[in-house]
Amino acid sequence: MEREERLDDRSDGAGDPRRIIHNAAIVQFSERGFSATSMANIAEAAGMSRPALYQYFRNKGDIYASAFVALFNDHVDDSLKALDDGETTAQSLDGFLQRFEGDLWERMATSKHSAEIMDVRSADTAAEIHQVITRRRAALEAFLAKAAPGRSKAAVAQRAEWAEVLALSPRGLKSDMPTVEAYRRRLGSLARGVAADIDA
């Protein structure tokens, strides 16, 4: 009991045991891979006992699903904040891409187990991550509507095209497994290219 009470006081998880477990699990999965990570590894990294871990999650797969949905949500939140904080269209779009695509790539590229981690999928995780991505896309579309207002079919179609390019291009930009720096440069070029079209 004493160990769980101390867990609530830790600042790295903002006092939320589930958040602390998420953070510990992501580190363990990145260092060991999904299959080699045990509940004991996660519990130890989270600073709690295995029985305490089971108070919050059923199994390793449950932790994985919850941790990665939370991770995606955090990166979406950061990307939406960056979208609002940019002084120019190019800065806003670059921040939007860097805080989600760039930061996630940096996290995955530093793990030799990234392919295995990304292959571990469940129907629940896929559905929840789809909701997160849909939230991100809706915010991007709202930003584009402010940046390039207009109700004509042509204006609506142009905004849809920009949103599609910004959503799909990052996948192609990392198809050759670039370094983090190269990928971030490519994202910056994409942001500037779309911004130039918007501002024209």
Please provide a written account of the structure.
The protein is mainly alpha-helical. The chain has two domains: 2-57, Arc Repressor Mutant, subunit A (Orthogonal Bundle); 72-199. Helices cover 78% and strands 0% of the residues. The chain has ten helices and no strands. The longest helix is centred in the middle third of the chain and has 26 residues, at 60-85. The N and C termini lie far apart (62 Å).
Keywords:
200 residues, disordered N terminus, Arc Repressor Mutant, subunit A, mainly alpha, 2 domains
* Number of helical stretches of at least 4 residues: 10
- Terminal Cα separation, in Å? 62 Å
Report the principal-axis shape: elongated
What gyration radius follows from the Cα positions, in whole Å? Answer: 19 Å
**Count of β-strands:** 0
Could you report the average pLDDT, rounded to the nearest whole number?
Answer: 89
Domain count:
2
The major sheet is characterized as: none
Strand/helix succession: HHHHHHHHHH
- The class by helix and strand makeup works out as mainly alpha
Blueprint (SSEs and pairs):
Blueprint: H1 2-9, H2 17-32, H3 39-46, H4 50-53, H5 60-85, H6 89-109, H7 114-119, H8 123-147, H9 153-173, H10 180-199
Helix pairs in contact: 2-3, 2-5, 5-6, 5-8, 6-10, 8-9, 9-10
Brief digest:
The protein is an all-alpha fold.
